[in-house]
Amino acid sequence: DVGMLMPLSTEFLPTNFTSSARQNIQAQAAQGVCPVLDINRNEPPYQTYPDSEPESQLWYFREDPQMSSHHNYWHGLFFNTSLERRGEFFFYMHRQMVIRYNVERLTHNMGVTPPFSHNLWDKPIP
Fold first, then answer.
1. What is the distance, to the nearest Å, from the Cα of residue 69 to the centroid of all Cα atoms in its chain?
2. Does residue 46 carry a pLDDT above 60?
3. Which member of 8, 48, 61, 106 has the lowest number of beta carbons within 10 Å of its beta carbon?
4. How many Å separate Cα 84 from the centre of its chain?
């Protein structure tokens, strides 16, 4: 047990947020077919970037549920302000995630992400 409460399926299933998914499942059930929800995160309506954007090649990394779960777990674990090395752990974990993202970018010939230095803090993110 990692101390996380899992939400009820009714709180996160795509059928509760997209009418087309709900209609497809209802149509399959009416035909006597066991309803299956097939989600391809690289196709609309779940696609996060259009195909014209180079970043769309990395959808599998940004939309990875295990990576998101791991990230959320770390934030929950190190939310305790009494931990002595909390900032160090925070920096280390996020640095590892950015390094992994940069490796994925390099495998797609995209170059590494530009550093978010202090002189960019007051400017809009492109």
1. 9
2. yes
3. 8
4. 29
Residues 67, 62: Cα–Cα separation, whole Å? 8
The answer on pLDDT for 13 being more than 70 is no
Residue 21: how many other CB atoms lie within 10 Å: 19
pLDDT, tens only, 59-93: 888 888 888 888 888 888 877 777 788 888 888 98
Tokens matching residue 104: 């994925």
Question: What are the backbone dihedrals phi and psi of residue 60, each rounded to the nearest 5 degrees, phi first?
Answer: -65, -30
User: Minimum mean pLDDT among 5-9, 75-79, 93-97: which range?
Assistant: 5-9
Per-residue pLDDT tens digits for 76-85? 887 777 778 8
**CA diameter of the chain:** 60
In which residue are the tokens 């959808």 written? 59
Structure tokens at 33: 């077919």
- Inter-residue contact 41 to 63 (CB < 8 Å): yes
SS3 101: helix
